[in-house]
Structure formats: C-alpha cells, structure tokens
Amino acid sequence: MQDRLVFSSRRSPVICLRGCVASSQPLASNIGLDVLKKGGNAADAAVAVAAALNVTEPVSTGLGGDAFCLFYDATTGQVRGLNGSGRSPKAQTLELIEKCGFSQNNPPPLFHALNVTVPGAAACWCDTVTLFGSKKLSLAELLQPAIDLAQGGFPVAEITAHHWARGTETMRAAGRELGGDLLINRQPPKHGELMTNPSLAHTLQELAQRGRAGFYKGRIAEAVVSAVRENGGVMSLEDMRNHVTTEITPICTDYKVVRLWEVPPNSQGIAALIALNILQNFPIRDLGHNTADYLHVLVEALKLSMTDTMTFSTDPDLVSAPVERLLSQDYAQRRAQSIHMDEARSVCEPGIPTGSDTVYFSVIDREGNACSFVNSNYMGFGTGLVPQNCGFSLQNRGANFSLDPGHVNCVGPEKRPYHTIIPALLTDVSSGRLLCSYGVMGGFMQPQGHVQVLLNMLDFGMNPQLALDAPRAFVQFNAAAQQWHLHLEEGVEQGVAEALRGRGHVVNWPIGGHERAMFGRGQVISVGTWWSPNKEKTTEEQRVLWAGSDPRADGCASGY
C-alpha cells in the first residue's frame, strides 16, 4: 500500500438520464444503481448503499453509528428529513460521569464506553424505506446485496485500507483490540485483500427478517449492551428498546438563486446556512477562487458560523436553538460587518447572548426523487467496541457532549449530542425544482465543505466533479492554544498561504497525501447545468444528471 496518496489523474463528471448514485465505494454505488434499475426509488437505493458501505468501509460507518436523511419528493416538491441520531443512556448523568472521576477539564477518553450513544442507523434505514421508499422492494431485498458482500467477501479499496490500518493502530494505542470480525488474522486487511464478515452478514439478516426489532430487541441489543457495560458504560436494554427516529422539518436559506436545505439541530447543518448568509454580503465571484481575499472572507465567515453552532446546537427536544434569529439576514449582516479584510480573528464570541469519519452518499431516481444520506461511526471505528458476533463497532458520538453544566449541550440522560453529520439538498428559489443532492463528510469539515462546493459551482461555474476536485480550506479551533488554525490543501498557492499568514491566520500548508482526509470526501449529483455561466438551458438539458465523486475517497458516481 502506498504511504503517499498522489493525485495523478483526472476524471470527467458522470452524465446520465434515468438515475444516478454517488458514494465513496464503487461496489456500494453499483448496488444502489441495481436497486434503481429494479424499480426502487432514491430512498430504497440509499438504504441498500448504506448497508453495503457498512460492509466495505466499516472504518467510517455502520450499524453501530447514526444516520441523517433528506428526501426530495418529486411529486410534491417537498423536502422532508429524518434525524437518526441516538440518545445517551437514561442512567448517564453529569453526576454519574463526575463520580467516575471525569470533569470538564478531564473528560472521558475519546474511546471510552461512556461515549457510546444508542446506535440510530438501523432504525433510520427502516424508517427511510417505510416513509420514503417506493414500496416495490422489501427491506430484505434491499439488504441482501450487502449480506452477499459480507458473506462472499470483497477486495478492500486503497484509501479504505489505509484508514483501516490507521484506525486499528489508534485502537491498539488506546488499549483496545477490534476483534476478529474486523480483522484478518488479527491484522487489518491490505489493499486488494479479500475481506469477509460473516457476523455482520448474520446481523443484517436479522434486521432484514425482523425489521427494527431485529436490532433493538433480542440478540443484537443484548450484545450491544453487554459490550458497553463490560467496558464502563451504563447503557441498558431499555435504552435500546426506546430508541426512535425523529421526522424533522429541514431548515434552509437562500443564496442568490438557490435554496440550501440542511438538517436542524442537534446537527451542525445550520453552520453552513449561517456562513452562506454572511457571505452574501461580499462579492465572492469578484474575489476570485482560492485567492487570499476569498479564503480570508470564507474562513472568517466559517469561524463565526461554527462558533454560533457550537454554542447553540443541542437536542431540540430538550433545548430549542434560536434558529430563526441565527438565520435572519439582519443577523448575518451584523456578523459580516465584524469581518476585517486585513486581520484574522483569533477568538470568536457567539453573536447572540447565551442563557471525522463518515460516509455520505447521494441518489437521484428516474422520477426525480432525491435522497441525500449520511451515516457515521464518528471517529473511524468509533469507540472500537465490537459487540460479540455482530460484525460492527459502536460509535463514540457522546464525545461531543459538553461537561460544562451551564452549556446547552451538557451531557444528560436520554439526550442527543451535538452532531457533525449533515446531508444537503439544493432547490431553485423561484420554482422549487430540485437542483442538487450533495454532501461532504468529515466531522467539523462538513458544513465548511458544503459551503465551498456550493460556491465552487454557483459562483465559479465548476461542474460537480471539478467542484469536488478543487483544493479546500478547513478551519479548526484549537482548544489547547485557544486559537483558530487554518489548514490549506496542496494546490492552494504558496503566495496565498503566506498572504493569509500576514493577516494573522495560523496556517498549516501544504497538506497532501492521505492527510487530505481532513478536508472531507464529498459526492454531488446535479440536475441540469444550473451551475454553468450559460444558464439558458432547454427543458431537455435540465433533465440530464451530472455527478461527481471525491478523489479523496475510493468511490465513484454511477448512472444509467
């Protein structure tokens, strides 16, 4: 396996008419396309892809994690959504965590069992099919291709193999062994090596036969609870039984001629919307793509939006975020006025007074329905805890809880934590017509990626593949240093990096090879060429699907 990931080739956008799937694994993309060809719709195909990715990319996703979904109904023009994130155990209180010896300044280790929240993915898969599916294919039919992959085996892709090995090393450094289900002779699989996972095949079969009860009751639920409790967590069978997916009302904002749809808190989708609102106050196109002026404005807007989001985003069932105020144009204008072109902001305060590894994939079907779907373990293998004979690892989403008793996102019983995973959709402001289903996975990079890919297309006229290929910026708050760090990908000019340092940014440049993973991995399917500078298109041209898949991952877009 290459230690260095070299970007030595180019690819054209995939163009097709009847249906398209874009994911981070070609085997998963092909499975989704087969579902579309059998008469399934975008939601059906999305669940089949989610299951396949659990098999082929367990270092990013799986039944031990969470999921979110946005669905565009071509018949009604309505955008609907599902929050498939799990809650903390009922017994998990701040007092309990403090009794375990942890505090705000000494939180549980990232991979501790106390960071396991109830896995929400299985229920989200089931509810996606029930609420949005075509009703032509059963859940069992949708899961069968993934079952076949897990039983018969698959060759491991290059980038996945790298992260599988790195994730295994990380777990061992933390004193945890992944177990036989996710290793071959106690070692992570190499690039091209055949991997099987019979335990996961059995788990998927139970889900196929019994639906959500096959996961949240019985053998699998008992194995999940045992794995958590044996390692210092407090999850119970009642916590598993009580889990439900929540149907949500997506939130949106208008940027020029497009409307960006995101999932609301407890996710960080609002960060992309706040940033876009701020950026409306600047002549983005005139600044030029990836110039020092453009990246400075972009990064300063992202700092402000991420600060607001981390301040207010929490479980909406327990604390309501001031979404309407945060998304108002007046608020965005005030935030924009605080950006100084010659000086970077080192620390941000919320504008309203207060009281990383993921898979994203997209599907559009022949009827024009779209399913924007994201599924994640969080940090690679999550906690690395693998329930006995289940074939998947358990997430560590609870690591995003605050242990500050005054924070809205403070840990508490049966509470959803701040969540990083976000799918996105774009519609036309005037007609409501679907324009794009897209997303960029990668922890706190996700809203930043949503904004950059959208600007690449709308303001700089890039097709979906070029928009994903373009070098990215990632701004990250370093809590230890109490300052923002700006990471710039290889491909951004040296002079630009130096100019940004001159304005006070703490710049890490150039970032290449496998370290590019920090910039996320996106998928885009566009309906028509609304992104083209020549926007006078015929109705026939508006039917053509244009798709791109991120070169930072192993995947591809497939259409027919």
Low-pLDDT residue intervals, each spanning 5 or more residues: none
Number of strands: 19
Number of domains: 2
Strand order of the largest sheet: 1-18-17-13-12-9-8
Helix content: 25-40%
Describe this structure in words.
The structure is a single chain. This protein has 560 residues and is of the alpha+beta class. It folds into 2 domains: 22-246 and 358-400, no CATH class; 248-356 and 424-559, Orthogonal Bundle (Serum Albumin, Chain A, Domain 1). The protein has helices at 26-37, 42-56, 94-99, 121-132, 139-152, 158-173, 198-210, 213-216, 219-229, 237-241, 269-279, 284-287, 292-312, 323-326, 329-337, 446-458, 464-469, 494-502, 539-542, and strands spanning 14-16, 20-23, 66-73, 78-84, 154-155, 194-195, 246-248, 251-255, 258-262, 357-364, 370-378, 424-428, 434-441, 473-478, 483-489, 506-511, 521-527, 545-549, 556-559. A 7-stranded antiparallel beta sheet has the order 1-18-17-13-12-9-8. The protein has a 7-stranded antiparallel beta sheet with strand order 7-4-3-11-10-2-19, with helices on one face. A 3-stranded mixed beta sheet has the order 14-15-16. Strand 3 and strand 4 form a beta hairpin. The protein is globular. It starts with 13 loop residues before the first strand and ends with a strand.
